[in-house]
Amino acid sequence: MRHGTRTQRLSLPSEHRAAVLHGLVQQLILHGQIRTTYARAKEAQRLADRLVTLGKAGGVPARRRAFRVLQDRALVKQLFGEIAPRHVDLSGGYTRVLRLSVRRGDGAQQALLAFSRLPAGVTAAPPRAKPAQTPQASAAPTRQPPRPAGEAKKPKGLFEGLRHLWTRQKKGSAAS
User: Fold this and answer.
1) What is the enclosing helix (H) or strand (E) of 102?
2) Is the pLDDT higher at 63 or at 174?
3) What domains are defined for the chain?
4) What is the pTM (predicted TM-score) of this model?
């Protein structure tokens, strides 16, 4: 029995699970918010909160412990220099997990993991920009000629694409 265990296994071996969580926290510190599954977000939230607590403590031993997880000096510097000072007056709850819609491929619950206090000038997730159309792409010839303005598109039936299978005659049978 698994009495007294607080971590979720996430269906991963322990080394892989640690690598995934460390990667999530690295991206969280780098970008300020990440989108992942709900279970991974909850586990990464625990690790991120511990790192912010280390950042608030300061000192060389805390930096070394943070470096074990982050594996990047620039991220440790950002954690101790920018992120931890924003949360000095809080005693916990440095990150938040917001549920999003389910993922279309496998139905997994998605979540947004973000710091509770974003830096000045940064709001929630920026809207996704649509790719700009190049003039050549809009001037490309279409497969069908343009329809007159008054003519509406005919709705396709259920077997519209398969109708040719029953109506087309074979080449050899038409001559006999």
Assistant:
1) strand 95-102
2) 63
3) 14-115 (3.90.1030.10)
4) 0.67
